[in-house]
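ESCALATION

Customer reports they have been waiting on this structure for their group meeting. Please prioritize. Original submission:
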Amino acid sequence: MAGNGKAETKLTPVLNAKISIIIVTYNAAATLQRCLNSVYNQVYPEIEIIVIDGQSSDETVAILSRNESPLMFWKSEWDNGIADAMNKGTTHVTGKWVYFLGADDELLPGFSDMANELSDPNAIYYGNVFAEGKIRLGELTRYQIAKCGPYHQAMIYPKSVFEKYSYNTSYKISADFALTLELCGDSAYKFIYKNHTLANFNHEGISGINIDSKFQRDKAKLVRKNFGVVTWIRYLVHRFKHRDNPRA
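Update from on-call: job pushed to the front of the queue and completed.
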């Protein structure tokens, strides 16, 4: 994000600070242990794992029980969807940074490389993910963030974001994207890109194969509120050109 013209303030670096990784699960027994192992294999030393499970009926809870020692916190209870579970996870964070990992995703060594570069407590850092056979998405312009945003699994947030914001639970799939749009409208934060590939992203998960109809209805309004009229008009033109694509 561009500067706002305010006098620059001296920041206290938060290098090598603890990162809280939040994993939301529901009937994830087929992939959860592999996901957890990918966190255990990270060389970055300051990581805690928080798992919020939505009362799984498969072996997910048994897997969590077997992994109880490495986990900082886990709980299995009813929730009102992914956004609600992510909000619950943020209440248990003790780290300076927060990262969300899908139970069907896997961290790559690039996560630790990115972790070693976190220094600005007013920055949302983002990198890449490996999805559908290639690295995505690279550095994004402000308009590209408005249009498609970084992958959630490519973003590491300062804890202060979740002291100020929570995920909108009315968005059943795209609450993370809605929060990204809000953060772009908040002058207290900026986005910084680092060329590291953080995770293997499973594009066949719920966010990859389903559409959040309410978010799609609200998206133009969110773009206007947080990016201004020029970006909003540009986005409307894009959406009109791609009106047959429900994700546009």
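Sent to customer with the following note: Residues 1-11 have pLDDT under 50 and may be disordered.
Escalation resolved.
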